[in-house]
Amino acid sequence: MALVLFYDTEGRPRKVNIDDISGTLVSIDQTHHEIHEGNHFLYTDAVSLNDAGTQDYLITIPDSTKYIHMIFIMEGSAITQWQLFEGADRNGTTPQTVSNSNRNNTTAATLTIHKGTSGGSADGTQIHIYKGGSATNQSRSGSNTRNDEELILKRNTKYILRTTSGTNSNLTNIRLSWYEHLTS
């Protein structure tokens, strides 16, 4: 691998790696970079729900100069429905712990996640729905969804992520993965 040195605008030496065979630039993607910088966060939860049981997660985005770039990954062991609502006026009940993906970094996420909601009168506008799975409650016939494209969540807005079970003893899992990037 070839190494090219240059100097940034403040006179600091910087390096660029070039692949010896192809001559292409060696780099990492934006999400990977945000993990290194300590701006990437993770929240996971697992809940067993019975038929018609629901679990709400309130995601509150602050009014700040950071954009929240989020990917949602959700699984259920049987019949499961997920809905994402934007613009809720509800309150959260149980604050959740969010982890920085760079375990050497102490930067805290700016958004908050609550398990459960109370008060208010509106869930907001549904912007995503997914239904899947079967009544056999076996892993091979489970339900899962993942938005491979990130959503950039609206600042100063509350979201509700709702899981609804269509089967008893349905193990549901969610994984929220995001980075917080300053707007330009």
Explained architecture:
The protein starts with a strand and ends with a strand. The protein is mainly beta and 184 residues long. It has one helix and 14 strands; from the N terminus they run E-E-H-E-E-E-E-E-E-E-E-E-E-E-E. 27% of the residues are buried.
Keyphrases for this structure?
Jelly Rolls, six-stranded antiparallel β-sheet, mainly beta, 184 residues, elongated
Outline of the structure:
The chain has 184 residues and is mainly β. It contains one helix and 14 strands, in the order ββαββββββββββββ.
SSE topology sketch:
Blueprint: E1 2-7, E2 13-18, H1 30-37, E3 40-49, E4 54-61, E5 66-76, E6 80-86, E7 91-95, E8 99-100, E9 112-118, E10 125-132, E11 143-146, E12 151-153, E13 157-165, E14 170-182
Please tell me the overall pLDDT: 88
Distance between the termini: 33 Å
Radius of gyration: 20 Å
User: Quick one: overall form?
Assistant: elongated
Distinct helical segment count? 1
**CATH domain topology of the largest domain:** Jelly Rolls
Q: What's the architecture of the largest domain, going by CATH? A: Sandwich
Strand runs, count:
14
- Low-pLDDT parts are none
The arrangement of helices and strands along the chain is EEHEEEEEEEEEEEE
Tell me the strand percentage band: over 45%
Helix content: under 10%
Could you say how many structural domains there are in total? 2
Class based on secondary structure composition and strand pairing? mainly beta
CATH class of the largest domain equals Mainly Beta
Biggest sheet, open or closed, and with what strands and sense? 6 strands, antiparallel
